[in-house]
Amino acid sequence: QKEVEQNSGPLSVPEGAIASLNCTYSDRVSQSFFWYRQYSGKSPELIMSIYSNGDKEDGRFTAQLNKASQYVSLLIRDSQPSDSATYLCAISGYSTLTFGKGTMLLVSP
Amino acid sequence: DTGVSQDPRHKITKRGQNVTFRCDPISEHNRLYWYRQTLGQGPEFLTYFQNEAQLEKSRLLSDRFSAERPKGSFSTLEIQRTEQGDSAMYLCAYRVDTQYFGPGTRLTVL
């Protein structure tokens, strides 16, 4: 059974700082990894996907994947109050997604 | 613009009643997924369709739950004899390169 572990937080950072969100997973077969952002009362929104070891950058977001350590992270540079949300890590095997419980991020002005 | 619409957006029902939710893709999507998300948890997979065929069902999908996608377009999820534990956000997702979620239906069972 696949498991995805995230620190539930909240992770509090000041505006302009780097927020670092971490995720570990149990299934070595997983090939695809995703970060979703979820605002309170809304549905998850995909912000990053990563498929191979290393870093992937998109604007202020950087996803990092280490398959040997079964670890994936998300860095948010220049954090803004609008980044305050729950960040969900998800892994995919053949077809379905397995999610962690999410980490709440709070960015204070 | 999420690629799928869901109806209703909110549903309040009494325990024991049946409810049905609908997911409509805005454009053709071969794969449609249903997930359930309870408070403080990530979404949990329920079932998915490839066109009209239901290819996989989670053990979470008890006998009280049934899903259909009759013509490979819209999909419905029905819950019979609702229980308070069914209170959750029910999410429909479609897949292009990866999965994108609709706005969800929030169910409250009193």
What structural keywords apply?
heterodimer, A: mainly beta, five-stranded antiparallel sheet, B: 110 residues, seven-stranded mixed sheet, four-stranded antiparallel sheet, 54% strand, globular
The chain pair with the largest interface is: A-B, 23 and 24 residues
- Which structural category do the helix and sheet elements of chain A fall into? mainly beta
Distance between the termini of chain A: 41 Å
Strand content of chain A: over 45%
Q: Would you mind describing this structure in some detail?
A:
The complex is a heterodimer of chains A (109) and B (110). Chain A is mostly beta strands. Chain A has strands spanning 4-5, 11-14, 19-25, 32-38, 45-50, 54-58, 61-66, 71-76, 85-92, 97-99, 103-108. In chain A, strands 2, 4, 5, 9, 10 and 11 form a six-stranded mixed beta sheet that branches. In chain A, a hairpin with a 6-residue loop joins β4 and β5 (45-50). Chain A is globular, with a radius of gyration of 13 Å. The model of chain A has no long low-confidence stretch (mean pLDDT 94). The N and C termini of chain B lie far apart (31 Å). By secondary structure, chain B is mainly β. Chain B is built from no helices and eleven strands. In chain B, the strands form two sheets. In chain B, strands 2, 4, 5, 6, 9, 10 and 11 form a seven-stranded mixed beta sheet that branches. In chain B, β5 (44-50) and β6 (53-57) form a beta hairpin. The chains are: A mainly beta (109), B mainly beta (110). The A-B interface holds A 4, 8, 32, 34, 36, 41-46, 49, 88, 90, 92, 95-102 and B 2, 31, 33, 35, 40-45, 48, 55-56, 89, 91, 97-104, 106.
